């Protein structure tokens, strides 16, 4: 039974109960209140929870926001080839990994209510040279930055580290949320 049907059933039950009460049928008010509380608990447990929402990776969340910002539609969302941004390239790779990803993306778009899976981010830091890695996502190019230029250091996901080169994984340092 869906939430709407359950609400309608409870409305009918309570309407019937009130009609009987006003018709002279006496009932203990404690019983009525307990029944109302029980009904409210049942309704509350029927509401969708965070677990019921579709979960998308952060890169897909960014792709959805990008497409909405351009005022494109669902067809464009599901066909990242229409864009030449790095977001489109990443979204295309994600969609091609598993057929279910297209359904997940469509649900996130249509329901406009999803949970974003926060991906861990890493800086690439060579402590001997005291340098951070910079990364241009559009060009897929990397370079080393002196530590005093650490504002330009790149925050990379696991997938991006794999893309730029596994040799950098040994230098990966988790980005702390408060930094």
Structure description:
By secondary structure, the chain is an alpha+beta fold. It folds into three domains: 3-47, no CATH class; 51-117, no CATH class; 122-174, no CATH class. It is 47% helix and 16% strand. It contains seven helices and six strands, in the order H-H-E-H-H-H-H-E-E-E-E-H-E. The strands form two sheets. Strands 5-4-3-6 form a four-stranded antiparallel β-sheet, with no helix packed on it. Helix 1 (3-22) runs antiparallel to helix 2 (29-46) and helix 5 (86-97) crosses helix 6. The longest helix is centred in the first third of the chain and has 20 residues, at 3-22. The protein starts with a helix and ends in a 5-residue tail after the last strand. The model has no long low-confidence stretch (mean pLDDT 83).
What is the element layout, followed by pairings?
Elements: H1 3-22, H2 29-46, E1 54-57, H3 58-69, H4 74-77, H5 86-97, H6 100-111, E2 114-117, E3 122-126, E4 131-136, E5 141-146, H7 158-164, E6 172-174
Parallel strand pairs: 1-2
Antiparallel strand pairs: 3-4, 3-6, 4-5
Secondary-structure element string:
HHEHHHHEEEEHE
Mean pLDDT across the residues is: 83
Largest sheet: 4 strands, antiparallel
Tally of distinct domains: 3
Q: List the strand order in the largest sheet.
A: 5-4-3-6
Output the radius of gyration.
26 Å
Low-pLDDT segments, ≥5 res: none
Q: How would you describe the shape?
A: elongated
Q: Structural class, please?
A: alpha+beta
Strand segment tally: 6
Proportion of beta-strand residues = 15-25%
Number of helices: 7
In angstroms, what separates the terminal alpha carbons?
Answer: 47 Å
Helix proportion of residues, in percent? 40-55%
């Amino acid at each position: 039974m869906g939430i709407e049907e359950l609400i309608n059933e409870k409305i009918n039950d309570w309407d019937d109960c009130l009609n009987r009460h006003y018709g002279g049928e006496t009932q203990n008010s404690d019983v009525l209140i307990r029944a109302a509380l029980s009904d409210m608990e049942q309704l509350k447990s029927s509401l969708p929870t965070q677990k019921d929402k579709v979960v998308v990776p952060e890169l897909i969340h960014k792709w959805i926001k990008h497409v909405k910002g351009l005022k494109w539609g669902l067809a464009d969302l599901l066909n990242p080839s229409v864009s030449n941004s790095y977001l489109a390239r990443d979204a295309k790779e994600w969609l091609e990994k598993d057929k279910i990803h297209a359904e997940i993306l469509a649900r996130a778009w249509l329901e406009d209510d999803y949970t974003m899976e926060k991906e861990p981010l890493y800086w690439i830091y060579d402590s001997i040279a005291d340098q951070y890695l910079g990364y241009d996502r559009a060009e897929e190019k990397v370079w080393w930055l002196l530590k005093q230029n650490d504002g330009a250091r790149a925050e990379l996901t696991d997938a991006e580290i794999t893309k730029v080169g596994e040799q950098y994984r040994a230098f990966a340092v988790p980005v702390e949320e408060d930094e």
